[in-house]
């Protein structure tokens, strides 16, 4: 693999600082983690967006959250066709092997993937409709959410679509037989969240109101 | 979506603490992030494993790394077939839209996905060979790495396979035309890393030795 | 400009080494910086002193900090009189155009400018009182700090004056209408630091105690 | 000063890493620097731009360069009027007190201050002509450079103005009697440089050709 390059110097420097402080001060825990393996209490499905740090928001230590991150925190419907399904594999591993108790889908404000979907579904991003567009085909998962958007101004509708990405993912999660079984057995609970980055807000999906309410 | 449940109390408590401290003290930065959008300098592809915190190792603040996490930090080969490809979508977005300068694949010790692959390829995990096994089909990406493992004891061979997951992902990245073009144009550089969780170690792939060396 | 001379050989040599290593290894990032322009997260006002390297202390890469350096890290009071005000221009650009989220004033131990001010205000440096002394007139900004020094030995009083240079600069920053507005709008936060060079110490100004505490 | 805020957590973390590695490994040198005071070999006047790290380009250790950074690396003409002149104070201190042997003015590509000057002088940035614009009044120093620009396309003319900011600063330096005296006594040499950020290039002003040539 001749294309690999050395790590940028500032990352090497910062790593050395981490090793000498955070790691050194907590070596016992890192060793325990290595020997015992992981026993996370929850799985989180969040966006790749660089502004979303679920471990920061929830003060999480190494070992607490099994975290899958993809564009727009989406879960595709169950489709066991023998192909590579990265997201489905993470869910199968978390529920079937790790037996996490919680599965949290975390959306956020200003999501670029959701915005792309919005423009694609509005007919304003033909390049995303191309069959070779990985982002476009991935955002197809959210297309049903666009159809159900309330009328109103664009900013409101985009925000509603961000929240729809959470609800649709929760619904698709229930299409996985092993998720449905675990939920019905009472050994797994699902949670939908949406993070307002600028205001530090957190809203949770409530089945009662079928809407999001501040945590 | 009637199955969603309220957030566990300990997470609500921690979130409220974060909002009153970390967020409150750094509100200006969160608002800037919300208004300006993200300008991450690097994309990181790491494992979902709860013990791997790339932002901690590299002292990264919100906004620095666009992070995709999947089982065993794998990148599948380029395959524009119009289907949902979550990992490929993240790469397309990071390279094409965000124009990150660095793309880092980060493997780690004790990877459960890699171990599953090892047992599957050794004939000891028939359940993973099933066409309906999402984990098995996802780990197929790493199968070529198993064929090339050196002889030796199991622990050594598993570790070699963890590192192969990094190298194969780097090779598959180069099969994406837009990644190859960006690398050749000198606007994107690829990096392969492997983190020893228990020892806090970090090794980087070196094309010169075709092996990993301590950072 | 006939007085310019060739660069000393040792600097040419070092530059060529940097180009062949640091730059070559990180070319993608330099190109990204050139194409995208800068998006620094913070502005730092520090002293010109050759011993103060804020990028080193904070593991900062190119692009992270917009840095103004002057004698004794001073900010003069707001004075829009149509004259050249280099420091005021940097603040206007950072807050108004770059919209940085943090503005950090960084003082340090053994500051020669502060020491000059101390002697000037003590009546022991008449040459600095001369109207043609640029250093003296610049250090006039810190004069109010001298008046408020506690009684005690000289070393303690000089150190207190170094810290006063940070606090007075923060106060003068608030005299700029656009700084005050941004702070009150919650999109800019101010921070005061003092670096002990010999001990590698870092202290932060705390409004609660109106003093400096170790970070 | 009630507006000061705690340091963002990521900076505290990085500082602690620096203290435990870079500082700890080189403590003797930091203590020597603190006890002996600074003896820099050169003064550098560079831009505040976050992408310009003169210590990186020249592999400089703590203690080597006395660094003044302002918008567009400008030196105003000598003007001993008893007012605060931050840049003039830095020059007086470096030449008169520290007795540096070299004085380097370092310009760079993509300079936002120079671009603002270009637009202001072209009549396209009336807000910068306002007497209360600190950036505009600071960039007045470069105005004579605009008048002498060659005809041609805008990109070429902006680059020429960036280089003019170096030459005009060198000329203004010679208007300071103590600079002129030191140069003529052969104890100070002046150098003009321009850094191409994206390409890692460095060009030096040559009095022979009255132009810039690659180092």
From TrEMBL, chains A, B, C, D:
CDD domains with a match to the protein in the record: beta_CA_cladeB
Recorded GO MF terms: carbonate dehydratase activity; zinc ion binding
Keywords on record: Lyase, Metal-binding, Zinc
Keyword Glycosyltransferase applies: no
Cofactor remark: Binds 1 zinc ion per subunit.
Catalytic reaction annotation: hydrogencarbonate + H(+) = CO2 + H2O
GO BP, sorted A to Z: carbon utilization
EC annotation from Swiss-Prot or TrEMBL: 4.2.1.1
The UniProt record lists the keyword Metal-binding: yes
Annotated Pfam families: Pro_CA (PF00484)
Record field: transmembrane: none
Function in brief: Reversible hydration of carbon dioxide.
Name of the protein: Carbonic anhydrase
Organism: Yoonia sediminilitoris
